[in-house]
Amino acid sequence: METELNHMREYYEGGYTKEASWREAQLKGLRSFIIEKQEDIMNALLQDLGKHQVEAFRDEIGTLMKTLNLALKNLKKWMSAKKAELPKIALLTSAEIVPEPFGLVLIISSWNFPFGLSLEPVIGAVAAGNTVVLKPSELSPACSSVLASGLATYLDHKAIKVIQGGPQETQQLLHQRWDKIFFTGSAHVGRIVMSAAVNHLTPVTLELGGKCPAVVDSLSSSWDIEVAVKRIAVGKFGTCAGQACIAIDYVIVEKEYCSKLVELLKVWIKKMFGENPKHTKTISRIVNKHHFFRLKNLLADAKVNESVVYGGSMDEQDLFIEPTILVDPPLEASIMTEEIFGPLLPIITVGKIEDSIKFLRSRPKPLALYVFTKSQTLQRRILSETSSGSLTFNDAILQYAADTLPFGGVGESGFGMYHGKFSFDTFSHHKAIVRRSFLTDFWYRYPPWTLNKLQLLEVSYNYDYLGLLLVVLGLKKPSNRRHF
Ligand code: NAD
User: Fold this and answer.
1) Is 367 in the pocket of ligand 1 (CB under 6 A)?
2) Considering the entire predicted model, what is its pTM?
3) Do residues 239 and 381 both lie within one domain?
4) Which of 3, 62, 214, 297 fits 370 for a cystine, CB–CB 3.0-4.6 Å?
5) Ligand 1, atom nearest to 188 Cα
6) Rounded-to-integer distance, Cα 274 and Cα 73, Å
7) Are 146 and 250 in a shared domain?
């Protein structure tokens, strides 16, 4: 592995990946891969996750194509140097910010959106001119294999490699020296990644997860509540069966409004996934037995089980779990302390919807927070009194599809961001460039220090050029209370 990585470093040093033409060719290669291998991609998603092709297109193929087109359209603009202002003391000097690639980067991704979570960062990394090693998840093997053969065929194999494997292979990769590590996964492994990065002071982006809440205010119009319920149902059960970092983990609602919400959720779950969702194939399957039993165990506690008001059926052979609603399971139970990552939806009731703010503040900062309300006051309060990676009013998941918004967490849900131009920036070092002329040279920046030099420095920091000239000519007196 070390030799292979050394070759990649040498290739990077050769400067090929810094050329705009190289970056463009890789982005076009990725686009051809997605277009030409669309069927293989959909089949692999079906095989690994039972993901319906509409979901596959909505969350992976469609979003990736959008990002690729954006990157191809804006590549030269993103790569260009940006002018910057300088202090007055630097007369006749220009400054700019030049994005330069980090070098050799490692991308470790997760299994729930195997193409999106692998290729969105790859797009940013190659657009920024890096050489890349991608380590997809071992839990979605069909997808990882399509990624490995696809990238080897469509991209420059000297600069972009896929290395498959699980924790052991990832640990081996983490022992190597990288110029940037981009990790998507759990906070537990995020900590392992960060401690490995310490050895070489490698910059890290951690895209983690956690429990994403949805606060649902008592909406009075029947249209509003129906739209809210549809968005909640799709934001939980219709997004890889809740196996998504930004899926709604649980709902908070006023006690009086709870039964209305539950009744409507039942109606819409049936409309979306049929009377017997197992047979409609519109809902994804649980990724493997380990996660199936992890989810089953979340319901094993008697008090949690008592709180189930809808669903709860499971089929181990088919890795199927029915969309399930629980009302007020104990807050200290695992279902309310751990990330659920599956189609179980607890609803927590509060006296007044404003009480949700205290609840949210008592828990780790989530990757996404959803609030369904028409109240401007509640919107303002939630915005200013809570913290989360993103905040979406009256919808769920939508923020992920917006390439104009940064995607990333805060606190326990991670740090750093990507998507659209943010991906390019995440994989670039923004180098500060100053170009100085020899013509102007102010005497007051050199010792020996005098009161007059101090005054002039203060003036050049606080005035424009005219003010500075007036002071130098003695036509304006700077205010100065200092004494030597
Ligand atoms: P995970 O942390 O178990 O695995 C992520 C990656 O790390 C995989 O490639 C895996 O091979 C590797 N890995 C696993 N154990 C390791 C170890 N001991 N040492 C080194 N590497 C190891 O996470 P997961 O099961 O793939 O995904 C679920 C978690 O990821 C959830 O918490 C979810 O919220 C989060 N997630 C976040 C995002 C996001 O964009 N923020 C997206 C998807 C998933």
Assistant:
1) yes
2) 0.95
3) yes
4) 214
5) 2
6) 42
7) no
